[in-house]
Amino acid sequence: MVFFNWATMQMAAKIVYYGPGLCGKTTNLSYIYAKTAPSSRGEMVSLETETDRTLFFDLLPLEVGKVGGFRTRLQLYTVPGQVFYNTTRKLVLKGVDGIVFVADSQRPMADANLESFTNLKENLQELGIDFASVPLVLQYNKRDLKNILTVDELNAALNPDGTYQYFEAVATQGIGVFETLKAITKATLKTLRARMAAQETRLEEVRPPPAPTPAPPGPQNHFLPRSPRQRRRAGASTTATGGGAHSSSGPPACGGAFAQPGHSSSRPSFGAPGLGA
Ligand SMILES: Nc1nc2c(ncn2[C@@H]2O[C@H](COP(=O)(O)OP(=O)(O)O)[C@@H](O)[C@H]2O)c(=O)[nH]1
Ligand SMILES: [Mg+2]
């Protein structure tokens, strides 16, 4: 549900963390929240039961600075893993722009990972979203535990053609968390930029041809915006279809997002300016 506002030059994209129950989706978002400068993030909304399992979803809004001239915000969501929350999962997936599939590396979770991956594909299909068109990265989480599947085994099950980027992670320690986020952000913004360019082209195509003998600009229309881009800049905004969970309120813009106070020096910094490159 990418959201463009050409008048204010703002853009928002929706990234969903998907995966079986207890694989570590909420832990990813909690870590990102904890390590992101308060000026670059909104409040994390978590709806949990007393047993610490996500009942509905988590939501974390993040400002990532300017991309292609647009002040850009990411909305990070998690889905509830339990089988009986499929309606909620579908709702969260509506209008998704990028997906992180978090797999639980523990050997007994092999089937649950596959079931969840299949469920993701089914839900996207039901929503009329082409699975192959949505940027996706894999995160193999809980690498710190014993009795885990090898990376080769995980790839054989979830990534047999090597289509997806994958990251080993220990979300509880923050290992692999920002690497994963950076990869999905890059892939998502790249896709959105391509879509924006296509939209631009379509708008150019529908522009009426110039009149054979154009009248000289009179004083009244001299300052009227005439190209589609100018018209949009003059106040029109476009919102793609989708979940509609965007709110115009939120944290103030902040260029240098992901400035993480006190983050360990071993983790690469996640500088916003390079994201759109
Ligand atoms: N050992 C270990 N535990 C983890 C890791 N990531 C998450 N957990 C734990 O797994 C449990 C479920 O995590 P949670 O993020 O709530 O899972 P979700 O259902 O996918 O949102 C929690 O007790 C986490 O502390 C990890 O990398 N290693
Ligand atoms: Mg959760």
How would you characterize the overall build of this protein?
Strand 3 (45-48) and strand 4 (54-67) form a beta hairpin. Strands 1, 2, 3, 4, 5, 6, 7, 8 and 9 form a 9-stranded mixed β-sheet that branches. The model is unreliable at 215-277 (pLDDT under 50). With 277 residues, this protein is α/β, with parallel strands linked by helices. The chain has helices at 25-35, 86-93, 110-126, 151-158, 177-206, 228-233, and strands at residues 3-5, 10-18, 45-48, 54-67, 70-78, 98-104, 136-141, 165-168, 238-239. It binds guanosine-5'-diphosphate (GDP) and magnesium ion. Magnesium ion binds at residues 25-26, 54, 78. The site of magnesium ion (MG) has 4 residues, from helix 1.
Topology diagram in text:
Elements: E1 3-5, E2 10-18, H1 25-35, E3 45-48, E4 54-67, E5 70-78, H2 86-93, E6 98-104, H3 110-126, E7 136-141, H4 151-158, E8 165-168, H5 177-206, H6 228-233, E9 238-239
Parallel strand pairs: 2-5, 2-6, 6-7, 7-8
Antiparallel strand pairs: 1-2, 1-9, 3-4, 4-5
Magnesium ion binds near residues 25, 26, 54 and 78.
